[in-house]
Write a structure and sequence with these properties.
The chain has 152 residues and is α/β, with parallel strands linked by helices. The protein has helices spanning 13-25, 44-56, 71-77, 91-99, 115-126, 136-150; strands at 4-8, 30-32, 63-67, 85-87, 105-109. It is built from six helices and five strands.
């Protein structure tokens, strides 16, 4: 398996570090896209975009993005064509993000969930695979709408 891409803004550094350590305990390689805030204090869009682009370029199969709520990271990652990012704050949503929506990225909010729940969410997502079946046409339609929108 390719390394998991991970990135966090300043609000989620501690949670990101805990998730990286946890993934390493599971013998899962991690590439960290986190970088410190510079003169520009709006860093999370850059990190989310970099992770989504790396997944689109097939440098990674999956990514985890963390910020205060998980909302901003999800919005930005979903701007990259072909990327499906899901904000998850419970294990059921994480499973369904993979099984039904083939989400390559999950986003987590460090101000919303704690470390132990985050680990459980990551496990649920990593241990799930896209089921296809009745969900396959829906995921294909998402791709169709991306193409329609990009041609405008």
């Amino acid at each position: 398996m390719l390394p998991i891409a991970i990135g966090a803004d300043d609000a989620a550094i501690e949670l990101k570090n805990a998730i990286v350590a946890y993934l390493q305990q599971r013998d899962i390689a991690v590439t960290d896209y986190t970088r410190s805030r510079g003169a520009d204090d709006g860093i999370y869009p850059d990190i989310a975009f970099a992770v989504a682009q790396a997944i689109k370029a097939e440098q990674h199969q999956r990514g985890i993005l963390l910020c205060g709520t998980g909302i901003g990271m999800s919005i930005v990652a979903n701007k990259v064509a072909g990327i499906r990012a899901a904000q998850c704050h419970d294990t059921y949503s994480a499973q369904r993000a993979r099984k039904s929506n083939d989400a390559q990225i999950i986003t987590l909010g460090a101000r919303v969930i704690g470390v132990e729940l985050a680990k459980s969410i990551v496990d649920a997502w990593l241990d799930s695979e896209f089921e296809g079946g009745g969900s396959a046409p829906k995921v294909a339609k998402i791709g169709y709408y991306e193409q329609v929108n990009s041609s405008r």
